[in-house]
Amino acid sequence: MTQTNSTEIVQQQLRTLIGTGEPGSWINGSVHHGVGEEITLEDPAQGQPLITYRDGAAASVDQAVDAAHEAQRIWWSQTASARGRVLTAIGHAVRENLDAIAQLESITAGKPLAAARGETTKVADMFEYYAGWADKQHGDVIPVPTSHLTYTLREPYGVVGQITPWNAPVFTAGWQIAPALAAGNGVVLKPSELTPLTSVVLARLIETAGAPPGLVSVIGGLGHTAGQRLVTHPGISKVVFVGSPETGARIAAAAAGELIPSVLELGGKSANIVFADADISRAVGGAAAAVFSGTGQSCVAGSRLLLQRSVHDEFLERFGALARSITVGDPLHEDTQIGPVQNRAQLDRIRAMVDQAADSAQVVAGGEQLDRPGFFYPPTILAGVDNTDEIAQREVFGPVVSVIPFDTEDEAVSLANATRFGLAGAVWTGRVDRAHRVASQLRAGTIWVNSYKTIDVMAPFGGFGASGHGRSSGHDGLMEYSQPKAIWVETDPQAPLAFGY
Q1: Which residues of 375-408 are buried (b: 16+ CB within 10 A; e: fewer)?
Q2: Phi/psi at 379 (nearest 5 deg)?
Q3: What is the pTM of this model?
Q4: Can you give the three-state secondary structure of 129-168, one letter per residue?
Q5: Catalytic site includes residue 265
Q6: Catalytic site residue from 193, 299, 395, 409
Q7: Is 409 among the catalytic positions?
Q8: Cβ proximity of 356 and 378 under 8 Å
Q9: What pLDDT, on a 0 to 100 scale, did the predictor assign at position 498?
Q10: Which of 119, 193, 207, 265 is catalytic?
């Protein structure tokens, strides 16, 4: 596919989905074109400019927050059942436009078309799941030792600010917007400036499904302008960030300076542990999916592969053969298994980290940028890595796995936990007792047994340590978007008035 065709496809899909081929921010029911710095999106499969737009900057954030407050009052005044019906309709709208959204996501994020369809389908699942929760957020009656009727209500924060990354733009937008709306909030979302288009489309579909205009706005803009304004805006009551630990720390500090609470979903360096008693054929395929799907650009990627020594060599031989057989190509081609890295800077980071690690590690597969246009890097396996090496401790965010041998169960657990991250991990074993025992000892928010990377909106997701705090998805994710209010009703008109605290 030529560069011209990619640009034409993007513009045509934007005209169909948002009414204009010129991208910008979505604020209060229409596209707003920024007046700040020009931002050029690149086609990761071609390495060439794709489309441009202007930074919405702080002024767009101010407009969006004002609009969200007005719309949120309308939204919260509706019955919970009515809000649930709108969320269901949003899910249906996403399904009706699934192929168009997936094509946009594939081109701009470099994601294979099949994967983009799957992630867009999950966005529809998210809204439909939280539609069922809209009228089930109950308070409690508390039997206090006085004559009061004391009960609690769950109430929304008001307007929340959300910042999402470039690796899974539409997925992470739905991941955060759906529970926020189910809890009664308005949303101002700033996606990565590298991949804003599908988030803008989602905001428009939310309104066409029946949400008040302005309830969800999407700001196309840069982190140091629009992002900075969003996380410190006095009209924002909570901040949710999905991205790197370094940026997350800065955002949390900036928000805390304004006494704004935050939820952080950050990076990982997840351990994928394979014991000798595992189904090795299945574990080899699982290890490949764990780290190579999505071109390794996943916070839960199984980027540390811990192999029990007795099966190390056999596993590595089969794993290397599988890695070399994976089809790397144009994300719009149906047979592509792995697309390009999303952006040039990330490609340079991956290449530099692998080059440095290769001085001491054995390159079993990959290890060099592919000689073709675009930002393609092959599935790469590094063996002979020590768990203290930089490649085993820093998040690569690319299709690169470090292989680390171990002898005993205790050693595997110790190696897995010897990281500042704690997002995910996996255990491959044929023993039920070992599966439960090791899973319970791993310090991570999600553990898979004899599988990897299954994520669903019904289950909580989040990390320990440098992988963040708070939870997304499931009932736990919903609770991040509301606050309890206690109400005390005196039932005895003769009761003495209380003084003191």
Answers
A1: bbbbbbbbbbbebebebbbbbbbbbbbbbbbbee
A2: -55, 125
A3: 0.96
A4: HHHHHCCCCCCCEECCCCCEEEEEEEEECCEEEEECCCCC
A5: yes
A6: 299
A7: no
A8: no
A9: 77
A10: 265
